[in-house]
Design brief:
Layout: H1 25-29, E1 33-43, E2 52-57, H2 59-62, E3 64-69, H3 76-79, E4 83-87, E5 93-94, E6 100-101, E7 104-105, E8 107-109, E9 115-117
Antiparallel strand pairs: 1-2, 1-4, 2-3, 4-7, 5-6, 8-9
Length: 131
């Protein structure tokens, strides 16, 4: 597994990010944002950028889903059991390897592009809607 590489050009520095166009509240409320707990973290060396395959349980209605995530700035041990926020209704994305990423895990981007996962208290019920 290759380590996270610092991008010295800092493409995601807040000073470089332009304001996006207004889309209205309905665009946000159409998203299915839910809490889930990471059950499995697998190496994904076939990807061009360092990534993991993660399995997340989104509770009794949704169940378990898989995603590919460029979150290798976290160790596998740090991720297992972590409560995360996922976007569930963007549609599956088939990667060049044939793996289907079923949801998007949310985080804030450091200036170099490293993802800092959104944090939820452990007490949040798995499958809860995030608003």
């Amino acid at each position: 597994m290759s380590e996270h590489v610092i991008d010295s050009s800092q493409p995601y520095h807040p000073e470089k990010l332009e304001k996006k166009e207004y889309v209205g509240a309905s665009a946000y409320f159409d998203l299915d944002l839910r809490s889930g707990i990471i059950l499995k973290v697998e190496e994904f060396p076939e990807m061009r950028k360092p990534s993991y395959k993660i399995e997340v349980d989104f509770g009794p209605v949704i169940g378990k889903l898989w995603s590919s995530a460029q979150i290798t700035n976290y160790s596998r041990e740090e991720l297992l059991g972590r409560v995360v926020v996922g976007v569930l209704n963007l549609g599956g994305k088939t990667l060049p390897t044939g793996f289907v990423s079923q949801f998007l895990v949310l985080g804030a981007l450091d200036p170099d592009g490293a993802v800092r996962l959104l944090e939820l208290p452990k007490e949040v019920m798995i499958g809860s809607m995030v608003a």
